[in-house]
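Need a sequence for this fold. Nothing fancy.
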């Protein structure tokens, strides 16, 4: 066989192996993610979020389900803030660790945020499915400090009143981004 055919077979085989690893990693994470799949956040959405929610080098951004870590890296580059991400999908976690290698202030943990203490967060970013948002609201109300900002892409936090709703200027990625501040956005009990 010619070198071109061998090169193609090696490339196709490598691609197939990567896709199978992605499928297995996703299937393994399904019980924890409750059906949510890793999907990367578009840069126009990240930039819109970062334009609307400024941070400083002393603040901590926490990304719940950080995927490949692009939100964490962008925030750390722009503001110099500390950035912590939680990811249960093994492939996304490895990708996030690899892409964030050598970046001071960016930490990725392979664990579910449901069992984590979030009280040190100054900003919480999430891009989660609507069926977990009610449970998330209860966790955030109970575990975050007053003044903490919460940013949710696409889906509002049930019962909360956003301080602002951002719509990125994009034909493909113009879905809303909700910005909240505790306790102002939470329902009065």
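Here you go.
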């Amino acid at each position: 066989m010619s070198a071109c055919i061998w090169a193609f077979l090696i490339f196709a085989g490598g691609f197939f192996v990567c896709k199978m690893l992605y499928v297995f990693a996703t299937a393994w994470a399904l019980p924890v993610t409750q059906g949510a799949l890793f999907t990367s956040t578009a840069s126009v959405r990240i930039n819109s979020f970062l334009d609307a929610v400024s941070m400083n080098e002393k603040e901590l951004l926490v990304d719940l389900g950080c995927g490949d870590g692009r939100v964490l890296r962008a925030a750390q580059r722009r503001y110099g803030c500390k950035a912590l991400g939680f990811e249960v999908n093994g492939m996304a976690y490895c990708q996030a660790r690899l892409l964030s290698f050598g970046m001071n202030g960016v930490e990725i943990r392979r664990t579910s945020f449901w069992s984590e203490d979030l009280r040190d967060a100054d900003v919480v970013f999430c891009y989660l499915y609507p069926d977990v948002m009610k449970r998330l609201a209860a966790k955030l109300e109970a575990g975050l400090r007053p003044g903490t900002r919460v940013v949710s892409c696409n889906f509002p936090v049930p019962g909360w009143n956003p301080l602002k709703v951002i719509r990125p200027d994009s034909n493909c990625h113009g879905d809303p981004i909700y910005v909240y501040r505790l306790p102002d956005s939470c329902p009065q009990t």
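For context: The mean pLDDT is 87.
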